[in-house]
């Protein structure tokens, strides 16, 4: 019986100038921890490098995700190297060589509920050969902030679909 090799991809989110995760980052980590508890033997793959919008510290965002996961019981050896991405497109692209290097055959992509449609589109495009599932972290933001994020996601996904038709 071939062992399925599962990785839980924790998509990056903002952190502050001291490296503290945003509420969205903590929600994604908590969701990833729940998936980890349900899937013994899984590895974690954090994403997130640097960007004016989400991380201006001297360490990649994925470093802070890794610290959070380790502080909540995930052994360091279960956390793969970070995909140092600047956006969701790069999350998928930069995860590929890490996933290939570790012979991962199945992914659970963890992100915020409002971000799932775009993450699904990009990861299904990048990994047509793997078993994929998507795990939504519930977002607790003020209603107007959440609405803005949802509207941004609809526009961003429409742009991606349009660019593929060209």
The termini sit apart by 43 Å
Structural class: alpha/beta
Helix content: 40-55%
How would you characterize the largest beta sheet? 4 strands, parallel
How much of the sequence lies in strands comes to 5-15%
By DSSP, the count of extended strands is: 4
Strand order of the largest sheet: 2-1-3-4
- Return Rg in Å: 15 Å
Estimate the mean pLDDT confidence.
96
Oligomer: single chain
- How do the SSEs run, as a string of H and E? EHEHHEHEH
Q: Judging from the principal axes of the Cα atoms, what is the shape?
A: globular
* Annotation field: number of helices: 5
Q: Which blocks of ≥5 consecutive residues have pLDDT under 50?
A: none
Secondary structure topology:
Elements: E1 6-10, H1 23-38, E2 43-46, H2 61-71, H3 88-101, E3 106-112, H4 116-126, E4 131-137, H5 143-165
Parallel strand pairs: 1-2, 1-3, 3-4
Helix pairs in contact: 3-4
What does this structure look like?
This protein is α/β, with parallel strands linked by helices and 166 residues long. The chain has five helices and four strands; from the N terminus they run E-H-E-H-H-E-H-E-H. Strands 2-1-3-4 form a four-stranded parallel sheet. Helix 4 links the parallel strand 3 (106-112) and strand 4 (131-137). Helix 3 (88-101) crosses helix 4 (116-126). The model has no long low-confidence stretch (mean pLDDT 96).
């Amino acid at each position: 019986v071939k062992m399925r090799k599962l990785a839980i991809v924790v998509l990056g989110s903002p952190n502050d100038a001291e490296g503290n995760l945003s509420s969205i980052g903590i929600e994604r980590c908590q969701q990833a921890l729940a998936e980890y508890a349900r899937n013994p033997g899984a590895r974690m793959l954090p994403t997130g490098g640097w960007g004016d919008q989400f991380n201006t510290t001297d360490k990649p965002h994925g470093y802070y995700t890794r610290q959070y996961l380790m502080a909540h019981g995930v052994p360091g050896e279960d956390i793969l190297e970070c995909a140092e991405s600047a956006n969701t497109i790069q999350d998928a692209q930069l995860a590929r060589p890490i996933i290939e290097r570790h012979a991962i055959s199945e992914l659970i992509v963890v992100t915020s509920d409002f971000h799932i449609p775009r993450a699904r589109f990009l990861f299904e495009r990048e990994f047509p050969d793997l078993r994929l599932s998507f795990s939504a972290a519930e977002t607790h933001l003020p209603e107007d902030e959440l609405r803005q994020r949802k509207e941004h996601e609809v526009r961003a996904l429409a742009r991606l679909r349009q660019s593929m038709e060209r």
